[in-house]
Design goal:
The structure is a homodimer of 568-residue chains. Chain A contains 17 helices and 31 strands. Chain A is α/β, with parallel strands linked by helices and 568 residues long. Chain A folds into 4 domains: 188 residues, FAD/NAD(P)-binding domain, CATH 3.50.50.60; 116 residues, FAD/NAD(P)-binding domain (3-Layer(bba) Sandwich); 122 residues, FAD/NAD(P)-binding domain; 99 residues, Oxidized Rhodanese, domain 1 (3-Layer(aba) Sandwich). In chain A, the strands form 8 sheets. The first copy, chain A, has a 5-stranded parallel beta sheet with strand order 3-2-1-7-19. The first copy, chain A, has a 5-stranded parallel beta sheet with strand order 9-16-10-11-12. In chain A, helix 14 crosses helix 17. The interface between A and B is large, with 105 and 105 residues.
Chain lengths: 568, 568
């Protein structure tokens, strides 16, 4: 029997659900409404539109075969009716109708449905602080504001920009402004790191250092108090300083857009997302919801989670489309995979960081290593920085995060582990992970496998590690003479440091250590240093065997210290 | 209690097992013997040494921190004794000793062991045909022959080269010779495709076409009968022709090197590999074996499989090292992940091809799609070609293979699925695979997800497909007038074909099809054509709805046809 389907929201989830349903039930009717005039665009492309990598807004709204996904396209190519500039103002669940308002002509309409789909998405969080209504302050919420931002920049009136929030959108926009438009760009972030909750402080400091090298300034642990200006914003006042600016981008996070669902009495989670089951049905079985307005299961914590990603919205859309047509497809949840490109690096991850794992009640540790992304003898290669979060008792892997160059090598490693996370892997699974091997793509013992091995060694306490941050702190206090800094590399690597710091930097190459144990003090803590942490681990085994156990292996070695921008 | 360990074979597995064991039990003794003078090198780097990408053989034998992994290195840095040029001639399992022969001075020795490790590797298969002993015919078996080959090439006497075998080593060497040395290179292969059993014929033809564009010649389905020449090889006689050559590379496969194990009475599989359990123990619990000389479980077929890969050897080596020290580590098996770079493309896969799946008794189908590797609006992107092999009844995914550019995008997709294959995923898991998304790395609906969706549609018979090869065959018989070739793209794409073939090429853009059904004949089979197979699938849904069901969707569209090198 032909059905009558209404879809609210025509970006990502809505169109995917509609198209899938219509292919399965061509005889049914489907109407998709959206309050905007621009629909079915790739919202994740907005930073690339602002940067100029993507020149026209229409490119984000086109299919891969260059057809504009507008009302006519959906009508002609998909037999889907689209009403733009149309707001859903109320759902009458008893009557099974949606009341709508045309935002242009003010006309009201009533759309009956057999089944309803909510893809109402998210909205930018707002700081309720003085001056928020000044001109020149923009959220990154949709194509309309994106076009406004780009017009303002390309007008040439923006010399300085300030971004509030060091999350994904904030830093992507920071790159767009600084790199391609040459704007003096400052990021203010209320927490003490970039990408809070997504990567460790250690990795965050590396990301920050890389962006600072590319002329982006940061003020962390700093709270924006108000905006000042005469009609247009001219300065931002934080709890520590006043910063002049011509443009403010608000990127302090997003939240589910659930007013319509809430008013209709659908179940909303304490965190604010629409509650759905694995079939993507709301508490009303005739109403489906998905994308940025819902909560789905975090497959690591097995608690509700919020994963506002266009990729997941698309997958959920297809599940809804199938189920609208009588199928029984499920969307299980997510582990929170992400990747972002920033200047010359990519940052990616999946699952929990160590901090989040601890907050969630896991007794967890993390392992961090630095290794070449390809066979070390292959001419083109780069160092990769990778961290694994592991539950101490079980060895269960809870998350992985890392930093590499802008190729797909970094995200490829994360993707190889991300899917596996759903099957509760242990370090052993990571040690034996079967990555395709060829020297132009990986090492025989790939960084992923080495990371699993290192995590296992840390759990077994044969590898006792310290982080680069901690090393720097100890080094800065070297005059206290509490720490013995032992360089385990060959003399060629160690020489410059020994000559610069003869009283503090000791060179004993790892392969000479067992013969020169007498030179190692037993009354100090010992920091073992090499290029990446491999030889220093071997040195630790040698010291342990000699009964000298007060040593710490510098994880990631001097490569990690340098990546933090610290110069010894 | 300190143990005495002997390891036979000092490449990949042996050194890894020895180092791991020694770190866990520093007080024990370990002796590693190898018949060669060059040990612990990266054998997979040989093609890059021959090409010149890697200039010195020592680079393949060095650590990532540029220390040569020779006898002295293992002694000083690892406290492992190494005997090079030393052959293991006999294992006396009762006495628990290995009889050795020094191949330089002819001296015999006897090494007692508590536990023994066999890492005897593989040897090249040989064709027992006349002329095989002529000079200028080389296997790619070890560093010594690699050095000989490179010396001969760099001497300038090689204008033409012939490679027997179109497997991984054969084609990697073909690239090395043709690309970097400018040698006129011909590959002769006995089967009817390159990479037999590793990729489909469709993908194989694409690979072959790409190599032909790069000046490598192929003779497939052709058997080498003999080599001719006066001391040095001058020509190769096949069952179809005689080919002049200055150099022959034999790359017809490898087989486990198991003479020592066989003579010792250890269990050998019918296929010829040493039989080991998941702890990597042979039929003698005091003898471990791993790497290219053993069989391990194929985790797709759950039968014994042969996976001679340096990467797996390293992982198995670590498992053996742990178990030698009293651990209980396991190596479960492999799905056979691979990747290879050839000129401007990479080819990768995991699990079974359709042909192999059918041979193994699975009732299977395959889905093939072409899609951009990144968001289609992102400026830098490439088409990717990907095939999924699925069991018909259950939707279980049995394998995945594909072709992309030389970045890590292709291998990253394969790796994301490879590990999952061990958990018996279905198309639904592939449709919902959680890949990290950002426009510079992937699409919101990534090619992997689209591939899962397509496979599902094929299984449900809503998408009835044909391959590009088949399309070409039908097109070449177009004068028979049995087929209606319907171009579903916009007029801009279709115009040139319609003008060239007005009697055979019909243009109805997909978004006009429902209005122009009268132009579609009902008495012919219909081929639906677009750029990549997306719009043609939509067109098929439209035709189906109109009751016209005799249509075939060209998988991968014109992009697949072009990749095969076919010009319409």
């Amino acid at each position: 029997m032909a059905q009558n389907i209404v879809v609210v929201g025509a970006v990502a989830l809505g169109p995917k659900a509609a198209c899938r349903f219509k292919r399965l039930e061509p005889e049914s009717q489907i109407t998709m409404i959206d309050q905007s005039s621009i629909i079915s665009y790739g919202g994740c492309g907005i930073p690339y539109f602002i940067s100029g990598d993507v020149s026209e807004p229409q490119q984000l709204q086109s299919t891969s075969f260059n057809m504009l996904r507008d009302e006519k396209f959906f009508d002609d190519a998909k037999d889907i009716r689209v009403m733009t500039n149309t707001q859903a103002v109320m759902i009458d669940r008893k009557a099974k109708v949606v009341h709508t308002l045309n935002v242009i002509d003010g006309k009201n309409d009533i759309l009956p449905y057999d089944k309803l789909v909510l893809g109402t998405g998210s909205r930018p969080k707002q700081l309720k602080i003085p001056g928020s209504d000044l001109k020149g302050i923009f959220p990154v919420s949709d194509m309309h504001t994106a076009i406004e931002i780009k017009e303002k920049i390309s007008g040439g009136s923006v010399g300085k920009a300030l971004i509030v929030g060091a999350g994904f959108i904030g830093l992507e926009i920071a790159e767009a402004l600084a790199d391609l438009w040459g704007i003096e760009t400052t990021v203010v972030e209320i927490t003490n790191q970039v990408f809070p909750r997504f990567i460790s402080k250690n990795l965050a400091h590396m990301v920050q250092h890389h962006m600072e090298e590319n002329e982006v300034s940061f003020h962390l642990s700093e709270k924006v108090l108000r905006f000042e200006g005469d009609e247009t914003v001219q300065s931002v006042v934080t709890d520590k300083r006043t910063i002049e600016t011509d443009l403010v981008i608000m990127a302090v996070g997003i939240e589910p857009n659930t007013g319509l669902a809430r008013d209709a009495g659908l179940k909303i989670s304490p965190r604010g997302g629409i509650v759905v089951n694995k079939q993507m049905q709301t508490s009303d079985p005739y109403i489906y919801a998905g994308g940025d307005c819902v909560e789905i299961e975090n497959l690591i914590t097995e608690k509700p989670g919020y994963f506002p990603l266009g990729s997941l919205a698309n997958r959920q859309g297809r599940v809804i489309g199938t189920n609208l047509a009588g199928g029984n497809e499920q969307f299980d949840g997510a582990v929170g995979s992400f990747v972002v490109k920033l200047f010359e690096i990519s940052v990616a991850g999946a699952g929990l960081t160590l901090d989040v794992a601890l907050q969630e009640g896991f007794d967890a540790i993390s392992a961090f290593i630095v290794q070449f992304d390809r066979a070390h003898f292959y001419p083109e290669k780069d160092l990769m920085y990778l961290e694994l979060v592991v539950e101490r008792e079980t060895g269960r892997v809870l998350g992985i995060q890392g930093l590499g160059n802008t190729g797909e090598g970094m995200v490829g490693r994360i993707n190889a582990v991300a899917e596996l996370l759903k099957h509760k892997p242990t370090t052993r699974d990571i040690s034996n992970l079967e990555l395709a091997y060829s020297p132009p793509f990986s090492s025989a013992m790939d960084i992923i496998n080495a990371l699993g091995n290192t995590a296992e060694n840390i759990l077994e306490e044969t590898n006792r590690v310290m982080e680069a941050d901690e090393f720097i702190a100890w080094w800065l206090e070297r005059e206290k003479d509490e720490t013995f800094f032992l360089d385990c590399r060959g003399w060629g690597n160690a020489e410059e440091y020994v000559e610069k710091y003869p009283d503090h930097w000791k060179s004993i190459p790892q392969d000479e250590l067992s013969e020169r144990l007498g030179e190692v003090p037993v009354d100090k803590r010992i920091v073992l240093i090499c290029n990446t942490g491999v030889r220093s681990y071997e040195a630790q085994v040698t010291l342990d065997q000699a009964g000298i156990r007060n040593s710490y292996n510098l994880q990631g070695g001097m490569a990690a210290v340098k990546k933090l921008g610290f110069d010894i």
